[in-house]
């Protein structure tokens, strides 16, 4: 069996006016003849077609000039050639081309073409969690993966050619783990209508672009919007770690609501924080409904800040009285749980500093959280 292998790096698919879809290749060895049976890798797998015409530019002529090609009956290696033929629009650029000299070689070469592409894709190191990447050629796929690696964005699956239903189903697996990765980055490829419909139904986001940077920017914007939405959804559950010391000369109201000035000794305090007193058998003082610094409303106060807070009773709890249930000698801490800690870790990690995490460890021991 004689196999004519054409260059992977210079193999391109182009639409030329008057010629239709053509493929540009470099003939590395042997002789390619008009009418030879070609085995190529297509968007739906390997296929065969005949080389209808072998075209090369006329000597000393600009390629942009119309009718600048000369048809040849045969091409001898090593040189470039433009080939016309049926179904070439299905060809995946960057994949190998083989020549079948006998009919019984076609199926063998189809298997060989599949193995070459599978080997190339399987050599790409994938992560357990990440985006799904689709590109028009192996070269553009490698370029996109290099950019994602540099940007520290993991990828769990790759493919070349248009986005099909099977690609969406593979990407949808990330919905069970982390929805931010349930994304297909489709670079310079079409998305089949059925694939887009399924993606919309199951919740997979497909981004398409002809420029890598645009694809990257669209994905980052999507991830930020998703993260912001998740933060809003889990804001009530996320209790930040804090230690508060009441300022004895800043007690403005002793009951329902309690209004006192405090200094944040550690961590950070925000609206919605439930405060408790470990030294008084973990009596719940109430929930922080507002904060003021220098008579201005704030959403959060960090370590070292003196802040006036309003504390209202938690649902179902009898109002606590300053001076009876607690006073300025008692340390107030945020009432954290396993669920609230997990919510902070997952959705508000960037809001905490090193000292805040150390306080979390201390509070976990106080509340005996495993």
Automatic annotation (TrEMBL):
Cofactor(s), names only, from the UniProt record: a monovalent cation
Pfam families with a match to the protein in the record: GTP_EFTU_D4, IF-2
SUPFAM superfamilies: Initiation factor IF2/eIF5b, domain 3 (SSF52156), Translation proteins (SSF50447)
Domain Elongation factor Tu-type, residue spans: 241-332
An example Gene Ontology molecular-function term: translation initiation factor activity
GO cellular component, one term: mitochondrion
InterPro entries for this protein: EFTU-type, TIF_IF2, TIF_IF2_dom3, TIF_IF2_dom3_sf, Transl_B-barrel_sf
Domain Translation initiation factor IF-: 111-218
Keywords: GTP-binding, Initiation factor, Nucleotide-binding, Protein biosynthesis
Top-level lineage group: Eukaryota
Quaternary data: Interacts through its C-terminal domain (CTD) with the CTD of eIF1A (EIF1AX) or with the CTD of EIF5 (mutually exclusive) through a common binding site. Interacts with eIF1A (EIF1AX) from the location of the start codon by the 43S complex until the formation of the 80S complex. Interacts with ANXA5 in a calcium and phospholipid-dependent manner.
Functional note: Plays a role in translation initiation. Ribosome-dependent GTPase that promotes the joining of the 60S ribosomal subunit to the pre-initiation complex to form the 80S initiation complex with the initiator methionine-tRNA in the P-site base paired to the start codon. Together with eIF1A (EIF1AX), actively orients the initiator methionine-tRNA in a conformation that allows 60S ribosomal subunit joining to form the 80S initiation complex. Is released after formation of the 80S initiation complex.
Protein name: Eukaryotic translation initiation factor 5B
Native organism taxonomy: Eukaryota, Metazoa, Porifera, Demospongiae, Heteroscleromorpha
